[in-house]
Amino acid sequence: MGLANLPTELVEHITAYLDLTTFRSFRLVSHSLGHQALHQFKERFFRKRSISWTLSSFQTVSAINAHHYFGNALQHLFIDATPRHAIKLWKLKSDISASMDIASEGEYETEKKESDRISKMWNATRFDQKTLIKMFEEIAGGMLESITFAYSGMEKKYGKFARRYCETSQNEMSRPFVSVMSAIVASRITVKRIWHDPKKGYGAVSIGRLEALSPTLSHFDAAFEKLQALSLNLRDWRHPEEGFEPLIGKTPFVVRFLAKCRNIRSLELSCYSTLEDDMFAELATHCVFPRLESCELGLFRIYTIASLLSLVASTTTLKTLSLTRIVLRSNTEAWPALIHALADNVPSLEYLKLTKNYEGGGQVIRFEIPHPYLEGKTLLTNSLDIRGNDAHGEMRKHAENVVTSSEGPACLSL
């Protein structure tokens, strides 16, 4: 049997194991093979697409969008949202401070000008948003399976004064997320999953920058109608200024944005704000997730146990709850009462994970547990996993073994 007469099923089976280079060569063997392998080629190499926030990357995307057959294949979008200019500037500035290198000062000024030029280019042309809108409009069926945001980090030696880096990088770091959300609304597509890469999670979205979406907020009801999973790190480094304090009684925009995600089943949310002291109370008051099955919360300041229950006990489907670096800032309630409240009020809960949590004064929450190797001995741990058939009984037991210490973190905002 000649190559031109191979059954399509066999061709698709063979090409399922070829890398891109070999696949392209295979398609060039004959016109018939190229035609038979076309669907597999589209499924394997065009359903998933990666974008970095550079002009060349968007030009490549634009070229793919224009293709009559491959342009509508996208289902999984991976976005490298690493703020590369901010990182380079931070490294140069750190090196200058450490060595007073004059050459590095010149390089810093050059990089700063380039960073400003790129930022002005995006703002003036909106080429990134226009390309995203065009790409989303071409999606077959008008629904995107997933969007994943990745943020690469830096070497540990550049971690000093990390908060200052977070403040100076937030515009560049937030632009990808805000632009993608804007494009989703403009193109009228729906998306099932918005996530951050667990291996490259060194980034967050500025709450202030997110407010740029406020004119289109009402359109997110439709955009997020089929959203099942959301993973988001939020930061706000602004401080109240005289005459510009947050309006009393007005729900923060970020809370109104999150309230649009009412059908999600999985939520991973960390939030730290120097502007809104009790963001969690706003979240618990205005957000209802009746289908929520898995919830991971991090870095929130919680002032009442009732606010936590308002969020997690409003659903009868919650099976998994994780609390990481949560600060309970109550003068009358403590962590043992919080754990008891979860056991008493969330009957569907099957798994509770507690990691590096604190009380208001910075006291670390630890649990006294049996030593795994020394019989009759105990040890203290700040991380606890509770699961099993008697998870609620285990919660109540561990609530009685909470120990607090004053070894609080130097900074709870990282």
Task: Give a topology summary.
Elements: H1 8-15, H2 20-27, H3 31-36, H4 38-45, E1 48-52, H5 55-65, E2 76-80, H6 84-99, H7 102-125, H8 127-137, E3 143-151, H9 162-187, E4 190-201, E5 205-206, H10 207-210, H11 220-223, E6 229-236, H12 253-258, E7 266-273, H13 279-286, E8 294-298, E9 301-302, H14 305-312, E10 320-324, E11 327-328, H15 335-345, E12 351-355, E13 358-359, E14 364-370, E15 378-381, E16 383-387, H16 391-399, E17 402-405
Parallel strand pairs: 1-2, 2-3, 3-4, 4-6, 5-6, 6-7, 7-8, 8-10, 9-11, 10-12, 11-13
Antiparallel strand pairs: 12-16, 14-15, 14-17
Helix pairs in contact: 5-8, 6-7, 6-9, 8-9, 13-14, 15-16
Q: Count of helical segments?
A: 16
Helix content: 40-55%
SSE class: alpha/beta
- Name the poorly predicted regions: 409-414
Q: Report the strand count.
A: 17
Which outline best applies?
A: globular
> What does the average pLDDT come to?
87
Integer count of domains: 2
- How far apart are the termini? 64 Å
Largest sheet: 11 strands, mixed
The Cα radius of gyration reads 25 Å
Strand content of the residues, in percent? 15-25%
Please state the oligomeric state of the protein chains shown. Answer: single chain
Q: Which tags fit this structure?
A:
2 domains, eleven-stranded mixed β-sheet, 17 strands, three-stranded parallel β-sheet, 41% helix, globular, disordered C terminus, alpha/beta, 414 residues, single chain
